[in-house]
Design brief:
Layout lengths: L1 E7 L2 E6 L9 E10 L2 H8 L15 E8 L11 E4 L2 E2 L5 H4 L10 E3 L6 E3 L6 E5 L3 E3 L6 H4 L2 H14 L8 E4 L3 H12 L5 E4 L3 H9 L4 E3 L6 H8 L6 E4 L4 H9 L6 E4 L12 H7 L2 E4 L5 H12 L9 E6 L3 H8 L6 E5 L1
Parallel strand pairs: 7-8, 11-12, 11-14, 12-13, 14-15, 15-16, 17-18
Antiparallel strand pairs: 1-2, 3-4, 3-9, 3-18, 4-5, 5-10, 6-7
Helix pairs in contact: 4-5, 4-10
Length: 343
């Protein structure tokens, strides 16, 4: 099969590699669509260093079951499916509490996080455990379905962890893929005023189309001052979905009494400061969120199946696998939203 194999930082090669054979409890999925995540881009460009070579990136896939291994009854050949990239054991204390993304024996297919990182989905086929597989609703396209994992992460962060309420004034810092999905989840959940913050006017224009009531570009104004002009009483919820430490610092500067804030986008080990006494008297509640779990995946599928969120509105570029190098270069441009690969 054709696969994009990362041999080293900045060395992504298209190679013919053997098609894997499903074993007990596994399924082989023919990939129809796979989104490019910023973490994929960072691994390929060497910005993220926790990578073992060689590896096949790509952890946002949807496709069709090609072949099943012994003991698999949950799906059959020909089923249209969505693949959750993270796997879990099901029996450690974390799993039995429902926190499968904390699993002591977790693994990921094409992503990052646990030491056990397996081949991903920038390829014609991917191998996965059957518990990673969800049936794709018939009314979802493969391009929409492959976005289940980031949509589920947005639901988990905004709704499950930060407990957004109907009417909340929400600020989303960062209008990349995950920021867009956080915005769409907040909109679907009944946000009052919904402010998108980004340094790309291209991204902000998309955010406006997706339901942002206001947009703020920090390169064109004092972002805190502008946000407080819109929200004189301050935000109820701030989600940092950008990544740079400057976004985290902006989030902290926006806090007022009772604000909930979610450290979502930053994955690099950088420091920011808090005033202990001020934090105490503000009673600002900090959350953070990473990854996904079956509950979040199922809720994301529910939102998309019912038409409350349409990920295709976020997709700006589509490339065949053969042009993945071009796709990666577009990822570095401000003139894009979500990019999907079609193996």
């Amino acid at each position: 099969m054709l696969a994009a194999v990362l041999m080293d930082f900045n060395k992504l090669e298209l190679q013919d590699v053997p098609v894997p054979e499903p074993k007990q409890g596994q399924a082989l999925v023919k990939i129809k669509s796979c989104g490019i995540c910023a973490t994929d881009y960072k691994a390929i460009k060497g910005i993220r260093r926790n990578v073992e070579f060689p590896t096949i990136p790509g952890h946002e896939p949807s496709g069709i079951v090609e072949k099943i291994g012994p003991g698999v009854t949950h799906v059959k050949e020909g089923d249209e499916v969505i693949v959750q990239p993270s796997g879990f054991c099901g029996y450690c204390p974390h799993c039995r509490r429902g926190d499968t993304h904390y699993c002591d024996h977790s693994f990921t297919t094409g992503g990052d996080g646990p030491p056990d990182t397996r081949m991903g989905s920038f390829a014609e086929f991917t191998l996965c455990q059957v518990e990673q597989i969800y049936k794709k609703p018939p009314n979802l396209s493969f391009d929409a379905a492959c976005q289940t994992e980031p949509v589920s992460g947005a639901w988990k962060g905004v709704i499950h962890f930060s407990e957004m309420k109907v009417g909340d004034d929400v600020v989303i810092i960062g209008s990349g893929g995950i920021g867009m999905y956080c915005l769409m989840v907040a909109k679907a959940a009944g946000a009052g005023r919904l402010i998108a913050v980004d340094i790309s006017d291209f991204a902000l224009n998309t955010a406006k189309k997706l339901g942002a009531t206001h947009t703020v570009n920090p390169t064109a104004c004092d972002a805190k001052e502008e946000i407080y002009n819109i929200l004189p009483d301050g935000p109820d919820l701030v989600v940092e979905a950008a990544g740079p430490i400057e976004a985290v610092n902006l989030m902290v500067s926006l806090l007022r009494r009772g604000t909930r804030w979610n450290v979502f986008g930053i994955t690099t080990h950088e420091k920011f400061e808090l005033d202990g006494g001020l934090t105490h008297f503000l009673e600002a509640r900090m959350d953070s969120s990473f990854g996904t779990n079956p509950m979040a995946m199922q809720n994301a599928i529910r939102l998309m199946e019912r038409g409350l969120i349409d990920p295709e509105e976020v997709v700006s570029h589509r490339f065949p696998l053969e042009k993945i190098h071009e796709a990666i270069e577009v990822m570095g441009s401000p003139e894009r939203n979500k990019i999907v690969i079609h193996p």
